[in-house]
Amino acid sequence: MKNVLQYLVFLGLAAGLTWYAIHSGTINPEQLWADVSQADFRWVGVMMLLTFVAHGSRAARWRILLEPLGYHPSFLRTNTAVWLGYFANNLVPRLGEVTRCSALYKSDEIPIEKSLGTVVTERIFDVLSLFILLGINLLLDFDRLLAFIQRSTSATPDSESGVPVLIWIVLGLLIVGGLTVFFLWERLLELAIVKKLAKAGQGLLAGLLSIRKLRQPGLFLFYTVMIWGMYYVMGYVLFFAIPKFADLSPLVALTIMTTGALAMILPTPGGVGSYNAFVAFALHSIYQLPEADSGTLATFIQSSQMLSTLAIGLVFLVISVISRPSRKAVVSQP
Fold it and tell me: Which of 54, 183, 198, 242 could bridge across to 230 with cysteines, CB 3.0–4.6 Å?
């Protein structure tokens, strides 16, 4: 019952964000249909091929993490498990990790708790990768982002420098926060929440340092670059599917990828609603795209990627159901 209620909350969140996007004019259904009806869907086919490369890279990277534990599942079975995870995530948020570990247990009897541990390590490196990409995004598009901040905040009436009030507020909070930590450091260390954060930080550091135990750390980093590189190109090639977006800068694709990744933190099925709203807001606010065009592009990218993953994932689901478990993953002991 708890899981059903949780899923209904996820669906409600997706429906609410979608309703808001349509009601506010961010998504114009008539214009969306008109633009999509003119789309060249061969670019969606290209995106699907890139998705195979991205998920295949993730499967190969996962095998590297499983190797020190003494497990050596084939690439085909690991790739199938990854696809099943993405298929599940597009239906029920946060279910993908357990689904792919369960699939690998079914095919190779790898204990779920052990494979889940490697997935946590994966997520740590993905979060680190996302922060690096956000930093690159900020550096490359600094002028536009600064202009966006200045447009979004009011300047003090008597300020000759025109420094936004928000910047002064942020600086003030940082100073007050820094002084609080300095003078109350010992008391803060006794707080339960601080202890939990410290423990989480230690786990994060341990996960990052675990790469030293890998037999192929260079290959692990290569696959990580491949995963995020494909994510970037998967969005960029879809610009060319609809003529009005073909001239957009490659930097726009980087902003879409990073904004979309942050939007996926909200637990909606396949990013429905959250991805559309956040990405459309970024396109309209930062790059000054017309609001309806921003909604069209965000919705086209999100729906193309989601529907493709569901279609291909369904094929892998059928394959996993009719195939026999191999039970041959363990060939050595760590």
Answer: 54
Tokens for 33? Answer: 């249909």
Q: Hey, what amino acid is at 201?
A: G
Phi, psi of 272 (to 5 degrees): -60, 130
Residue 330 pairs with which residues in a beta bridge? 71
Question: Up-side HSE of residue 296: CA atoms within 13 Å toward CB?
Answer: 23
> What does the alpha-carbon distance between residue 238 and residue 302 come to, in Å, rounded to a whole number?
10
| Cβ atoms 131, 262 nearer than 8 A | no
Identify the bridge partners of residue 71 per DSSP, sorted by sequence position: 330
pTM: 0.79
Q: What is the pLDDT of residue 87?
A: 95
User: Do 274 and 14 contact (CB within 8 A), yes or no?
Assistant: yes
Rounded Cα distance, 297 and 36, in Å? 9
Structure tokens at 14: 């997706």
71, 106 contact by CB (below 8 A):
no
What CA–CA distance (Å, rounded) separates 130 from 264? 12
Q: Which two tokens stand for residue 123?
A: 């997520």
Q: How far apart are CA 238 and CA 39, in angstroms?
A: 9
For residues 62 and 65, give the distance between their C-alpha atoms in angstroms, rounded to a whole number: 5
* Segments in the chain below pLDDT 70: 1-4, 6-7, 148-174, 176-212, 324-334
Within the chain, residue ranges assigned H as helices are: 2-23, 29-37, 42-66, 75-89, 96-108, 112-140, 142-152, 165-183, 185-189, 192-209, 217-236, 250-263, 274-287, 291-322
* Chain Cα centroid distance, residue 34: 29
Look at residue 207 in the predicted model and tell me its pLDDT: 46
State how far the Cα of 190 lies from the Cα of 296, in Å rounded to an integer. Answer: 50
Distance, CA of 313 to chain centre: 18
Question: What does the block give as tokens for 313?
Answer: 């994932």
Structure tokens at 314: 């369904």
Per-residue pLDDT of 18-69, as tens digits, reads 887 788 777 888 999 999 999 999 999 999 999 999 999 999 999 998 888 8
The Cα–Cα gap between 72 and 167 comes to 52
